[in-house]
Design a protein that fits this description.
Order of helices and strands of chain A: HHHHHHHHHHHHEEHHHHHHHH
CATH architecture of the largest domain in chain A: Alpha Horseshoe
Distance between the termini of chain A: 58 Å
Largest sheet of chain B: 4 strands, antiparallel
Structural class of chain B: alpha+beta
Largest sheet of chain A: 2 strands, antiparallel
Number of strands of chain B: 6
Number of strands of chain A: 2
Strand content of chain B: 25-35%
Distance between the termini of chain B: 12 Å
Oligomer: heterodimer
Helix content of chain B: 25-40%
Radius of gyration of chain B: 16 Å
Strand content of chain A: under 5%
Shape of chain A: elongated
Strand order of the largest sheet of chain B: 2-5-1-6
Order of helices and strands of chain B: EHHEEEEHHE
CATH architecture of chain B: 2-Layer Sandwich
Structural class of chain A: mainly alpha
CATH superfamily of chain B: Dimeric alpha+beta barrel
Helix content of chain A: over 70%
CATH class of chain B: Alpha Beta
Largest interface: A-B, 9 and 11 residues
Number of domains of chain B: 1
Radius of gyration of chain A: 25 Å
Shape of chain B: flat
CATH superfamily of the largest domain in chain A: Tetratricopeptide repeat domain
Chain lengths: 391, 119
């Protein structure tokens, strides 16, 4: 009984909190009200049954509790003043009231560039993901009081600096949407390097965003990209060891999720999307084919490199070009990239040199990569590669 | 809400330093004046005062009842405050947009946007 109720709570949390912030005009007050509403639901629903419209029930209950509390506690004078706004008039609300979905407003508020990136990440996971402060602290390996402080400070800045609760107007939207997409993808990547629940959380956020912005190709592109990458998660590790894409057992890939990702990608392409997330999703989709269409992959990396100017993308293009034209063509590109502190540059170089039979240089390149690596799984992988060279 | 926009000139050429100012073309100088004029015409803006360069600053502290003065601004010269204005705006986004239109923001300085506390 507890588990399904918890799941319902997780699913509803973002929507309930967003609408309460819209109604109450105060992040902290709305969060307290939402928590109280969920606590009441946890007591009542198992006895009275789940209401027909759980979301509306939670919002109405939270809002009524907040108003009761303010009436009781006149010391909260400042907050009462805010509640006298016309939308918070004395209207009875219950679970038949239709509330607007304001999750998008909340997401843009949490990902406002006036907040530090780490605060944006934490706030997004708390407000929309419904993770507890303790869960977020664990995920980012910081003590819980530190994370609590980070969240408090971010919410204080939203109120004190006047960060608006709204979807930005058209002339600000492209830049702000990029910021939101970047935060969701950052959360995904934190999860992709081992902490799987964060990847799942990012996909949930990505789904919500794609649903809330159905005409925005990059929102669809990001969701498609995350689904396609995450579909290979089971095959990326053997025990604790990292397995490269070429060596992965594709029977471990999640075929349903790949199909799901491709459907979303098709939607992005139908919207004439060709931004960086759409292109990356298209590449991830091609990587899930056997045999792979390397010329097409190389062409897409070339497009992505043009869009982003990123040397990391250029490195990926080099790998694709090496598959099409051979290792010396790939190596020529690698040697033109200025990214000396990047371990993958050296491991890629090592692999190409090995294929060209330049074993000594390959060994030096792998050693250089090994010097730069921090992750244990990657270190073991590089040591295996070095051992293979010796043999 | 009311915001104070603190203008840090940084390395921005200003008429305060005729030598640096002369490095700008006539058109560029006109563009700076035009940008400030446009800002001052914004109905939400209460123009502040420009400050003489940080070299003219004196910083005062009191320690054990003794007044200590040091030559120069409180912060590093290149970070010193160059001027300010007050902007009455709906929200931070509007204040950020106005800040971005101040020449110093794009010419080597930066604008700090601070909400004004209203009692």
């Amino acid at each position: 009984m507890v588990a399904p109720l918890e799941q319902a709570f997780r699913d509803q949390w973002g929507r309930v909190l967003a609408t309460l912030i819209g109604l109450l005009g105060d992040f902290d007050l709305a969060e307290e009200a939402a928590q109280e509403a969920f606590a009441i639901a946890a007591r009542r629903w198992p006895v009275d049954g789940t209401p027909d419209n759980p979301g509306a029930w939670l919002i109405a209950t939270g809002r009524n509790r907040a108003i009761d509390r303010i009436r009781r506690d006149r010391a909260l004078a400042a907050k009462t003043r805010r509640l006298q706004a016309p939308e918070a008039a004395e209207v009875e609300m219950d679970d038949t009231t239709i509330f607007p979905d304001e999750r998008l407003e909340l997401l843009f508020t949490c990902c406002h560039p006036a907040l530090a990136t780490e605060a944006q990440v934490a706030l997004t996971l708390r407000a929309l993901g419904g993770l507890t402060t303790a869960e977020i602290a664990r995920a980012f390996l910081v003590p819980e009081p530190t994370m609590a402080q980070r969240l408090v400070r971010a919410k204080r800045k939203i109120a004190a600096a006047g960060i608006p609760f709204r979807v930005p107007p058209a002339h600000l939207l492209p830049e702000r949407l990029d910021a939101v997409l970047a935060i969701v993808y950052l959360i995904f990547n934190e999860g992709y390097s081992g902490r799987g629940h964060l990847a799942a959380e990012a996909i949930r956020l990505g789904r919500a965003l794609a649903e809330l912005m159905p005409d925005e190709p990059e929102a669809q592109g990001l969701l498609a990209l995350m689904l396609l990458l995450d579909a290979r998660r089971e095959a990326r590790f053997r025990g604790d060891d990292l397995v490269l894409l070429d060596d992965q057992d594709h029977t471990l890939w999640d075929a349903t999720q790949i199909e799901d990702g491709r459907t979303v990608l098709d939607r992005a392409l139908a919207l004439h999307g060709h931004g960086p997330y759409v292109v990356q999703a298209a590449i991830a989709s091609l990587h899930a084919d056997r045999p792979r269409d390397w010329p097409q992959i190389a062409a897409l990396y070339s497009e992505l490199s043009r869009q982003t100017g990123s040397p990391v993308v250029e490195l990926n293009r080099a790998v694709a070009v090496a598959e099409v034209e051979g290792p010396s063509a790939g190596l020529a590109i690698v040697d033109s990239i200025d990214l000396d502190d990047y371990r993958y540059l050296h491991s890629t170089r090592g692999e190409m040199l090995r294929q060209l039979g330049r074993t000594d240089e390959a060994r030096d390149a792998y050693r250089r990569a090994l010097d730069l690596v921090h992750d244990d799984a990657e270190r073991r992988l590089l040591k295996r590669k070095l051992a293979e060279l010796a043999g | 809400m009311k915001y104070m926009l603190l203008i840090h000139q940084g390395t921005t050429p200003t008429p305060n330093s005729p030598e640096d100012w002369a490095r700008l073309s006539q058109d560029e100088q006109q563009a700076v004046y035009a940008a400030y004029q446009k800002i001052n015409e914004n109905p939400g803006v209460t123009a502040g005062l420009g400050l003489a360069p940080p070299e003219t600053a004196t910083t005062v502290r009191v320690q054990d009842g003794r007044t200590l003065t040091t030559d120069g601004p409180f912060v590093e010269t290149k970070e010193a405050l160059g001027g300010y204005l007050i902007f009455e705006a709906d929200d931070l986004d509007a204040a950020i947009e106005l800040a971005a239109s101040i020449p110093a923001a794009s010419m080597g300085g930066a604008i700090e946007v601070r909400p004004v506390v209203e009692w």
